[in-house]
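RECORD TYPE: inverse folding
INPUT: structure tokens
STRUCTURE:
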């Protein structure tokens, strides 16, 4: 078995170190000496209020210690990774809050056998000592369609119970009232998870295996099996499957998602999902729920109860009236609770209309400007050249970047092709370059889009009043100067500037009276191609490649190759029309 890599000091000490690290960074939390227990630093402020204790195995961070604070938990008791905490530590935590003058103690426990047993035993021992203690067991799992003898597993919905109970305690509610209210809330809640990969306990290998094209629906937060495995499908379909399962009338643990229902939605990252993917899932969940006529009163998106590094997400739905939403909105100092907007998600405008562009002023076309059909043919040749180079440029970029240079240029080419097919070309060269600049800034993306946008925007200026070969040479110089000023690169830094600057040197010959455009441009293209090839012998001084050891850069810079290829396409386009 291959043991997974973990950033820990030791496997046995990982839970203690993690809790100590949280406490070290948060002055509002303190450790209970001799125990894996974290408590509010201001225990004196719970006098006369109900104390709230929770906990369970480590590995679910930020649960549970991240929810300690005014308006949420008074303290937590942590076990080793995926292991129930010790009875002695639970009892010590109860004693600590009782001695601080709490008006009773509520234990909020996820429905797992070990947690129920250990917290239950500590409760009985504390009661024998005269403490007023009660326990609420949270089971919000909506995976299993028939009731299991062990009941529903406790999942991310437990965090909402922490919040509701905390708000009630802070408002001065009695222990009995808090138990009644949170029990009702827990009964109106469901959670379902889906995973793309397993997790691994420190010192061990993965808890289960999934094929590359599979996902698991309904698994637990310790890697326990779910209800079924599915083939990978788009996020929208996954979310629909999850919500259908959670709300199916044949599901004994269903959430009653009737049209008009109001819910608090939690999108919970199980630990290893990228936040890009989490955003995609969040949007899908909002659309799917609103399409069913469900009103989303509040939406929480983030990592609330994880399963170590599991790449997955869980959806929690809490049916909530205005009073319950008010408890969710109540203030808390807990560091892991999000800064939640206290307004409904459903029913608000999500798009601001873009500002209108100012009116364009038609100016006379300068003498010598190329005709639109000629420009169209040149642009089409540039696009086909870049599309043909996509894989080659990506391969060159993998040595020193993120391997997307060809894809970025291909995206620009497709955007230009779409524009050519849908819009008439501006007749003025300056307007043509300015329009291309805006198009690439919007569609190309990345630093390449910004650099080409800079080049074209600056190059448009010398072409406003004239469009002869000398003006085009000046345009190239202006574009290069803008790229150097804002991009920070220079010739010799192994960038597209190496090709462009080499070409610009040759294009200066166009300043001479009677200069012949095509021979000068042909020489400029040859210099650009030679400069691009020479970049493989350069040490990068700018861009992502500057962070890579020069020993790894044995191929030409993809940006320089692309720039030279564009110049070659322009030359060939002009030659084909003069033949």
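DESIGNED SEQUENCE:
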């Amino acid at each position: 078995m291959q043991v997974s890599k973990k950033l820990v000091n030791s496997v046995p000490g990982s839970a203690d170190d993690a809790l100590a690290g949280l406490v070290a960074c948060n002055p509002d939390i303190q450790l209970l000496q001799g125990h894996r227990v974290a408590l509010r630093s201001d225990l004196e402020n719970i006098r006369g209020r109900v104390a709230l204790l929770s906990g369970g195995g480590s590995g679910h961070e930020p649960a549970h210690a991240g929810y300690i604070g005014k308006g949420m938990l008074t303290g937590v008791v942590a076990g080793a990774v995926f292991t129930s905490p010790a009875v002695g530590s639970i009892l010590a935590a109860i004693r600590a809050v009782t001695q601080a003058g709490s008006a009773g103690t509520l234990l909020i426990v996820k429905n797992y056998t070990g947690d129920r047993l250990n917290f239950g035993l500590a409760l009985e021992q504390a009661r024998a000592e005269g403490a007023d203690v009660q326990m609420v067991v949270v089971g919000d799992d909506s995976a299993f369609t028939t009731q299991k003898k062990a009941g529903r597993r406790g999942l991310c919905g437990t965090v909402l119970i922490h919040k509701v109970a905390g708000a009630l305690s802070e408002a001065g509610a009695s222990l009995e009232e808090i138990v009644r209210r949170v029990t009702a809330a827990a009964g109106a809640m469901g959670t379902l998870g889906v995973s793309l990969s397993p997790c691994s306990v420190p010192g061990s290998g993965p808890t289960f295996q999934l094929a590359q094209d599979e996902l698991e629906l309904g698994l637990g937060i310790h890697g326990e099996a779910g209800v079924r495995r599915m083939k990978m499908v788009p996020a929208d379909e996954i979310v629909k499957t999850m919500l259908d399962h959670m709300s199916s009338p044949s599901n004994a643990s269903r959430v009653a998602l009737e049209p008009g229902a109001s819910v608090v939605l939690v999108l919970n990252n199980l630990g290893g999902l990228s936040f890009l993917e989490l955003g995609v899932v969040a949007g899908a969940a909002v659309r799917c729920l609103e399409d069913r006529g469900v009103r989303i009163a509040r939406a929480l998106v983030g990592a609330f109860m994880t399963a170590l590094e599991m790449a997955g997400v869980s959806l929690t739905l809490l049916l909530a009236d205005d009073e319950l939403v008010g408890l969710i909105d109540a203030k808390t100092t807990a560091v892991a609770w999000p800064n939640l907007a206290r307004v409904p998600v459903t029913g608000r405008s999500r798009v601001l209309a873009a500002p209108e562009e100012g009116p364009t002023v038609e100016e006379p076309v300068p003498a010598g400007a190329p005709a639109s059909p000629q420009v169209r043919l040149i642009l089409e040749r540039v696009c086909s050249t870049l599309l043909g180079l996509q894989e080659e440029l990506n391969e060159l970029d993998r040595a020193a970047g993120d391997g997307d240079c060809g894809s970025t240029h291909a995206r620009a080419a497709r955007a230009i092709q779409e524009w050519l097919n849908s819009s008439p070309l501006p007749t003025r060269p300056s307007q043509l370059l300015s329009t291309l600049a805006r198009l690439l800034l919007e569609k190309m993306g990345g630093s390449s889009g910004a650099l080409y946008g800079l080049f074209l925007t600056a190059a448009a200026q010398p072409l406003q009043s004239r469009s002869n070969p000398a003006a085009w040479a000046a345009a190239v110089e202006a574009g290069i100067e803008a790229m150097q000023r804002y991009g920070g690169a220079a010739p010799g830094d192994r960038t597209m500037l190496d090709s462009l600057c080499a070409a610009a040197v040759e294009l200066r010959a166009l300043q001479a009276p009677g200069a012949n455009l095509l021979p000068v441009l042909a020489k400029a293209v040859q210099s650009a191609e030679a400069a691009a090839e020479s970049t493989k012998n350069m040490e990068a001084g700018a861009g992502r490649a500057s962070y890579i050891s020069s020993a790894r850069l044995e191929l030409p810079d993809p940006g320089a190759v692309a720039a030279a290829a564009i110049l070659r396409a322009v030359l060939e386009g002009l030659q084909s029309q003069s033949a």
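NOTES: The chain has a mean pLDDT of 92.
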